[in-house]
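Q&A FORM
Asked by: J.P.
Topic: structure of ArsR family transcriptional regulator

PROVIDED:
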Amino acid sequence: MSNPDPLPAPADPAPVFAALGDRTRLILLSRLSDGKRRSISALAADSRMTRQAVTKHLKVLEQAGLVTSSRSGRESRYSFDPKPIAGLKAYLDQVSLQWDGALARLQAFVEDEGSGSA
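REPLIED BY: S.T.
REPLY: Here is the structure written out as tokens.
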């Protein structure tokens, strides 16, 4: 029995998963998820993080495509970009389908073996 062609693979999800694997970056994304652009100073306010630490984390998020930056005078302002999250959802949906297929094949194999030995 042949398997249907797999869905096309999305872009490499590893950098997005890696960027999301840090609690500080998740907090920054949460603060940016309201759609407002914020400066590094605004993101560092009310936290124990320095502006340098915030900058380091924002660069990782930006490289993963999760935030975008734009200049406003002398400041860079950052905003959340949800597209990579949609890409992760597509990737996880694809993995889920593959596991569903593997489990169905295993179930069929076990049921066939069970009916043949009786």
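FOLLOW-UP: Residues 1-9 have pLDDT under 50 and may be disordered.
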